[in-house]
Design goal:
Elements: E1 5-8, H1 13-24, E2 34-40, H2 51-78, E3 84-90, H3 92-102, E4 107-110, H4 119-124, H5 126-134, E5 139-141
Parallel strand pairs: 1-2, 1-4, 2-3, 4-5
Helix pairs in contact: 3-5
């Protein structure tokens, strides 16, 4: 049985580079991968948005997330993969860690750097750093 691999993605150069790195090493990965996009819940809770418009904002965020996942899926399908997708709401590092453990993934593949602050965040990125220290499965950093 092939290992279960989780690949969190977003619309960053790091995430795109991670997907292309997986493609360049495709003989080392199973055909089936699970792509995860997390919609940051904190960005949807702006106090100036009336409650009646909040649902519309949430739906638009979901459409954008789905479009991004579809774009990555098309790229991976063209390379011979059979990607599956997950779209979730929450704090990315927390949701990624929870799903990796809850769904018993064998490996988590994530890009290392998006933006930095502290030294470890400069080296790994804050999301990758959190995930690296809070999941049970091995983590492959690109």
């Amino acid at each position: 049985m092939d290992p279960k691999i989780l690949v969190p993605v977003n619309d960053s150069p790091t995430a795109r580079a991670t997907v292309y790195s997986i493609i360049s090493l495709k003989e080392r990965f199973p055909k089936t991968l699970t792509l995860l996009y997390v919609i940051r819940k904190d960005l949807l809770t702006y106090k100036m948005i009336p409650d009646m418009q909040l649902e519309m904002v949430k739906e638009n965020a979901m459409k954008g997330g789905r479009a991004l996942l579809d774009k990555y899926c098309a790229t991976l399908i063209d390379a011979g993969f059979e990607p599956q997708t997950m779209l979730e709401f929450g704090t990315p590092q927390v949701v990624i860690s929870e799903i990796a453990d809850r769904d018993e993934f064998d490996l988590l593949v994530i890009g290392r750097h998006e933006r930095g602050g502290q030294i470890r965040n400069v080296l790994f990125g804050s999301v990758a750093s959190y995930v690296l220290h809070n999941v049970s499965c091995p983590v492959l950093l690109f």
